[in-house]
Write the structure tokens for this entry.
Amino acid sequence: MANDPNRCAELAESLAEVATGAASGPDRARVLDHLSECDDCRAELERLSRVADEVLLLAPSHEPPAGFESAVLERIAGSDDAGPEGTGPDDGSGAGSDDGHAGGEPADGTRRHWVRGLVLAAAAAVIGLAGAGIVWQTTSDERELAEGYRKTLDIADGQYFSAAPVRDASGEQVGHVFLYQGEPSWVFAVLGDAPAPGVYDVRVATDDWTGDVASCDVEAKTGGAGGTINADIYQVREVRLVAPDTPPLIATLPDRSGE
Amino acid sequence: MSDEALLAGMATGDADAMAGFVRRHQARVYGLALSVVGVPAVAEEVAQEAFVRAWRHAGNYDPRRAQASTWLLTITRNVAIDVVRVRRELATDPVAVAEMMTTAASDGDRVEDCDRVAAALRELPSEQATAVLLSVHFGLTAREIGERQGVPLGTAKTRIRTGLSRLRTMLEVSHGE
């Protein structure tokens, strides 16, 4: 894929923070958007991430109190945690098998958990945006989601992930949309500079279908929301954020139907 | 038995494999949790939650992507960071902990497989080493690191990037020996 050296240089420092897992939401969004079209930066992120992984191993070692092992085993014997849930992008590490459908159709339990993870991630993002102003409060769910993006890009060379800027009527960028190909696929919209507060419907359009998948509650200028779609992400042509008395905010997706 | 074999057992619901996995990694997981949250009782909760997540998602682990210990410690760190962000009264002084972690005196608390990265970290200017540790272990953003180190955001970002890049160079040289 074609690289833009200027863009690579602009994002070099944020790339390191994505590697350590500590990037703020907006920084992470910018990097992930760029990674979908830059092989060099994806490779650099992979190298830096391996270094960060090694640094994590420096954690001091201390024996926990007596009874720790028993306490863990009692917890997993509880009804909610009684069985492993198989594959999915939300283990908390980003080191899993990241393509939600690489192993075939997931079991119902896996699908439930995947959807639950999405809802948690969306909720975490929205709560964080509301609570922290323009600073996107990162939570483990949100980090898991972001790690899922990155690993998916690594494995699938970008084909299972797509992103596009959201622009207002004058063409100014006011946010991002992210699309993930999975079981189910989903769309997530993040506004960082919305023209007006309010509730924006996240309206997804393919050639054959248009529907609202989420409501994005914008306080001040920021907000985020997402939902699942019954379509492959390459079919999505456009995502609109629609609010009363406000011109629609529009993200136009690249045409990948021929890939 | 290897970590991969234990995780494969856990993925099929084998509680014995889980017990073995906990015994093998509990000191490291608890140690990381304690270094981030600073309170033993809370660290124990964090460590338990990390293992529960590992159990739930054992089938998700991909050895091509990371060592099992790295995978588990990443889960632990993320749980610990969430706890600290919600319960700010828990926070230790991350800068002090990070600086302590770069000293040779703390080597005895570590497992042997990280001697190489510990040595590389000590080769960095201390402000870069601390910035990297604050980012990796404590999940602090560049803005937060800048505030704690008393430097502008751009300087904090540069410290993280330069520190990580230098570590990469040093570790690549070390790998090649």
About this structure: The first helix of chain B runs from residue 3 to 11. Chain B has a mean pLDDT of 85. Chain B touches chain A through 82 residues (CB under 8 Å).
